[in-house]
Amino acid sequence: MSRVTEHKPVESWLTDMDGVLVHEERAIPGAGEFITALQSSGKKFLVLTNNSIFTPRDLRARLLAAGIDIPETAIWTSALATAQFLDDQRPGGTAYVIGEAGLTTALHEIGYVLTEREPDYVVLGETRTYSFEAITKAIRLITDGARFLATNPDPTGPSQEGPLPATGSVAALITRATGVAPYFVGKPNPLMMRSALNRIEAHSETTVMIGDRMDTDIISGLEAGLRSVLVLSGSTGEHEVDRFPYRPTRIVESIADVVPLVSAMS
């Protein structure tokens, strides 16, 4: 494992949210202290999430209820990254959207029109209740020529009752029916990381990515040229790390162990 001291000082931090800062609605011990340490150090940071259901305002309220105070401007979602991608690719376009407020608000804010009539794109995001009618409409629009975009490839999402089907699973259903695979914008696409870096005017060589999943957070950080820290408080267990052909820069038990690194890696 490469020594951190061989790298340039860290000027900015990207961190995943679920499994790193919170579990469901509860803060993971050390999360509040980590954010406080970042704010005290003056380092730029963004909290990233593949969840496209919520707006940054919603997520700020959720985090605040858990005792973690993060400004809206420091939250970057796959919905925002998807909206930015669409604005870059086809400004002022149209889309048929399967998703909730986080996605529809992001698209409205870039000037997209949401429509069922010959849209430029079908955009699939996260929702608590996927409608068979909406999925059918998406299949027909894609068959008729609409481009297929999805916010993230996560096959399942967490709930108190157990896993729920998520964007990746519904995308697979639509692909099976149409023969058309979507372009996924969120992690592990390094595009999500680069859009986050651009958001805070950060450079990959001086940025660290913190995550709890080897197959999304760590690989997307690696491919975007960032150092990475894997926390073992979420999806990937320590015994699973060696199964992957790549490794994080550091492995720690939880976000509490990253707090001292904020000053040590400066």
Automatic annotation (TrEMBL):
SUPFAM superfamilies: HAD-like. GO terms for cellular component: cytoplasm. Divalent metal ions. Mg(2+) is the most effective. Signal peptide: none annotated. Keywords: Carbohydrate metabolism, Hydrolase, Magnesium, Metal-binding. Belongs to the HAD-like hydrolase superfamily. InterPro entries: HAD-like_sf, HAD-SF_hydro_IIA, HAD_sf. It comes from the Bacteria. The active site is at residues 16, 18. Gene3D superfamilies: HAD superfamily/HAD-like. Pfam families: Hydrolase_6 (PF13344), Hydrolase_like (PF13242). This is NagD protein. It comes from Kribbella kalugense.
